[in-house]
Amino acid sequence: MEELLIVTTGGTIDKIYFDDKSDFQVGDPQIGRILQELGVAFRFNVIPIIRKDSLHISDADRELVRDTIAAQAARHVLITHGTDSMVATAKVLSSIEGKTIVLTGALNPARFRGSDAEFNIGCAVGAVQSLPAGVYIAMNGRIWDPAKVRKNVSANRFEAAD
């Protein structure tokens, strides 16, 4: 892997809590800080594209993500994305050829103790380096085909689609 392209779109992984508002807001991308703290042995470039909860990502946003990735020379791409519409975005990206693209996110903000963010990022980094070209989702310790996975909202995890 010559250099890992990281595209950020917001989502829970980047959320921060504001006490005075009693709600979550999408903050700055966390993945660059996480990878630096972990001392990874590869080069990466972070491109923040949008900063939204994935429930608010539009078809136009998905096209922007697709066009941005397609325009980059990098063959290995990791995307941080909110979990609620991650599958929909992955399906749009399937039209990109010759790149290994892995989407990941978190069910709890990266800034929170016990967040799954670092684990999911680690799985995604391993997947993007070892899988053939295509689009994948790395969540809950598994690598998923976007056409065969769904988020089970009540159980708060990804599982095989029916």
Automatic annotation (TrEMBL):
The lineage of its organism: Bacteria, Pseudomonadati, Pseudomonadota, Gammaproteobacteria, Lysobacterales. SUPFAM superfamilies: Glutaminase/Asparaginase. PROSITE patterns: ASN_GLN_ASE_3. It is an enzyme of class 3 (hydrolase). The keyword Translocase does not apply. Its EC number is 3.5.1.1. InterPro entries: Asp/glu_Ase-like_sf, Asparaginase/glutaminase-like, L-asparaginase_N, L-asparaginase_N_sf. Residues 4-156 form the L-asparaginase N-terminal domain. Pfam families: Asparaginase (PF00710). Keywords: Hydrolase. Gene3D superfamilies: L-asparaginase, N-terminal domain. This is L-asparaginase. The keyword Hydrolase applies. It comes from the Bacteria. One of its GO terms (molecular function) is asparaginase activity.
